[in-house]
């Protein structure tokens, strides 16, 4: 729900903005702006929101978070109105357009706040009405630098063919609206005799559309519970594999028993029944055989399975530990989000993926970087980035992937000491290789992969062109869900 014209007038009358100095500008979101002001009543925070369905301006009594990176409009305002004085603050008739006249040194600026639910905006002009900048640049409305904005003037055009445009400067009579009433005790922590600014601030904190606490908390639940469910399912699959690999010693025992009974195995036997010298004396055991293999090869087969299971068990334990740590972190983050009572702060935390410190990519490394289960995946988006990554940012044992038969990105998986690349990470990188290639629209494709040390540059060839050797092939079906999860793991650059 947005403010009506009577409520806007009441808010402005309570604040008495003329004579206040603007000391600071904070743009906590693309559609939320706050001015730190100081005047007769002391310091205060004046909030302007052009959020669809929750357009308003009022004094806020809640802490307002800063954005992690400077936003364009806030940086513009800092250069024009910070340390300026508000000389005038009024609504133009009943149009829900508020004009603030601000003097900074010898310059005067007009800051127009249009609180229309489906076309809200903040526009800054000079004294002639020339637009200097706008919070939302709207070319169809002419609301961009260099345009003209003078809402004080209403243009009326007749339908007669010979009619001329007539500019009318007096606005029409205000329509009848009522100031919203709040039942006693309907707003938590707000006294019945509180100012309308206090009441409206509290009301929007509880019910304010996109910035409503309950709506944001529900968004947090959906986002984090979905991620936790997917991670939980993955951990369950790993635990099943751990149970399977936990019987690795049995495989070695089977190999020993087969090798001790080679003479008793005849060609084509599907089972070996022999004494189990690892159990109680006299115990027998039946071991499945591969009829097409020789007796010695039967034992080697079980030894090979034992070695794989033993090595795989160590990797699975490491993945389980990482996954359980990640799950605990998600649970803690969700609990912290649900405890947040400031909607603006919660809005920011959700944008920053729960307020965790955003991982920073090496500022000199080109392309896109993704951190997935402690593995770093790098994507070069064009020939120049591919070449730069090959020359300066990858090493011989890093894995290289590239879509087959289609031009596109080079994707690299950075090596981890003593670790082989898990299938899940290979599929992640494969999805990125197909997605960032010309074969994206096919939804699937083949790719090459090989260590970087097996790439050979083409002499006098185009930038980044290489010929792979000892490459392997992989067929990838693009998975939308996997790509969405990878987007959550993308590392942002400074």
UniProtKB/TrEMBL annotation:
Keywords carried by this UniProt record: Coiled coil
Domain NFACT RNA-binding, residue spans: 373-459
GO MF terms held by the record: ribosomal large subunit binding; tRNA binding
Annotated Pfam families: NFACT-R_1, NFACT_N
Gene Ontology CC entries for this record: RQC complex
Keyword Magnesium part of the UniProt annotation: no
Gene Ontology terms describing biological process: rescue of stalled ribosome
Domain of life: Bacteria
Cross-referenced InterPro entries: NFACT_RNA-bd, RQC_Subunit_NEMF
Coiled-coil region(s): 313-340
Name assigned to this protein: Putative fibronectin/fibrinogen-binding protein
Native source species: Treponema primitia (strain ATCC BAA-887 / DSM 12427 / ZAS-2)
